[in-house]
Amino acid sequence: MHKSVKNEEEIFESDNFKLSQIFNEQPKMATANPERDTDTDVDVDVDVEDEVKEEPPYRVIIHNDNITTFVFVIKVLTTIFMKNVMEADQIANRTHNYGIAVVGTYPKSVATTRINKVHFAAQLEGYPLKMTMEPGE
């Protein structure tokens, strides 16, 4: 991982960083239509225990490279993995020093989605950043 300026202001004001444009979309909320008749009574028998199946946990691992900047790594850790700047900095340093670091443990679908977002953002910026996942506890 290429060590770059880690000033918090520079991390969030990086001109060449498009990630915020990609992932900061707000979900659109449905609006109620007062003219629509919503008075419906439907009895539905649902066994909640059968509906909710817990996914197995997976550890997300970030891998070191000599091209991806600290600024980019911290940005994806704060925007995609919702880490604060201090946590992101610690993970980036651990990755730089040891070659890999655990980002966190998430349900399998969440881990997969977040890794895909990171790879997409890295590809857009021309970085070879690699993240993998392995079964967790």
Secondary structure topology:
Layout: H1 8-12, H2 19-23, H3 48-51, E1 57-63, H4 70-79, H5 85-98, E2 100-107, H6 108-125, E3 130-135
Antiparallel strand pairs: 1-2, 1-3
Helix pairs in contact: 4-5
Question: Could you please describe the fold and organization of this structure?
Answer:
This protein has 137 residues and is an alpha+beta fold. It has a domain at 66-137: Ribosomal Protein L30, Chain: A. Helix content is 41%, strand content 15%. It has 6 helices and 3 strands; from the N terminus they run H-H-H-E-H-H-E-H-E. It has a 3-stranded antiparallel sheet with strand order 2-1-3.
**Major beta sheet summary:** 3 strands, antiparallel
**Major beta sheet, strand line-up:** 2-1-3
CATH topology of the domain at 66-137: Ribosomal Protein L30, Chain: A
Distance between the termini: 28 Å
Going by helix content, strand content and strand pairing, the class is: alpha+beta
Number of helices: 6
Please sum up the structure shown:
With 137 residues, the protein is of the alpha+beta class. Helices cover 41% and strands 15% of the residues.
Provide keyphrases for this structure.
137 residues, alpha+beta, Ribosomal Protein L30, Chain: A, three-stranded antiparallel beta sheet, 15% strand
